[in-house]
Amino acid sequence: MQKVESGMNEPAPEPTDVSAEQPISQVPTGMHPAGRFLGMIVAGAVATSLAYTAVAGVGDVHLLPEEFMNLGGMPTPEEMAAANAAQFATNTGNAMVWLGITGAILGGVLALATGLLRRAGMGIVIGTVAGILAGGGLGYLAGNLAVSNHASLQVSVNGPSSQLEQQIMVLHGITWGIIGVGVGVGAGLARRTITVRSLLVSVIVAGTMGCVAGGVFPIIAGVAAPLENAVLPVTAHGTGRIIWMGLASLLIAGGLGRAD
């Protein structure tokens, strides 16, 4: 009798469909990091232009009352105190408006760019709105603190020049660090998937880069625009203000472009 081997008449196994077992590659959710960095730099330049134009267009919102514009040749101590208080209030009001506008524009533009470059979907809208509100609100606060810090700086203006320079660097560092935090809130929420980690990273990066920009501004302004007054809490209209705004905007934008 012929011996039939076991399994000889069983059907051959079908070939395995390898392609069905392979995970389907996901659609990229954003640009290449290098492209995202360059895109954010462009957005930073746009934000600088818009902020500079907007602040220059608004101009002085709060004006010094007429009774304090000409105190005569020998004002009394009471008149001088009242005039100084009125000037402080005027400077504070204008700085709060100008930096509120600046923070809102930087926060909105950089959050919008972050969302678009990351293809964030609804995160684009959420981040842009949050950037405008947080950047504007913290910019408003930064304006108040900037004038207060400047007033305390004037008290020690007769001190060593190195100490004065350090105080100026701290003044601008605090101003742009606060605005950077607001910008970071918007950028951190301009994601397809919002996480606590991404929000914290954006806030820390943007705030840190703002501090760095404000800190090095007096040094760069001294070289690029030596005739500009870098001591003012809000740099005067012109080249100095372009450097003041542009340096902060570009560094914050570049930092956000590299952050993950």
Q: Rg, please? A: 28 Å
Helical fraction equals over 70%
Rounded average pLDDT: 86
Distance between the termini: 75 Å
Count every beta strand, where a strand is a DSSP E run of 2 or more residues: 0
Largest sheet: none
- Detail the poorly predicted runs: 1-8, 16-28
- N-to-C SSE series? HHHHHHH
Helix and strand content put the structural class at: mainly alpha
Strand content: under 5%
How would you describe this protein?
The structure is a single chain. This protein has 260 residues and is mainly α. The chain is built from seven helices and no strands. The protein starts with 17 loop residues before the first helix and ends with a helix.
Helix and strand topology:
Layout: H1 18-21, H2 33-58, H3 77-117, H4 122-155, H5 161-189, H6 196-224, H7 239-258
Helix pairs in contact: 2-3, 2-7, 3-4, 3-5, 3-7, 4-5, 5-6, 6-7
In short:
The chain contains seven helices and no strands.
Spell out the key features of this protein:
single chain; 260 residues; mainly alpha; 7 helices; disordered N terminus
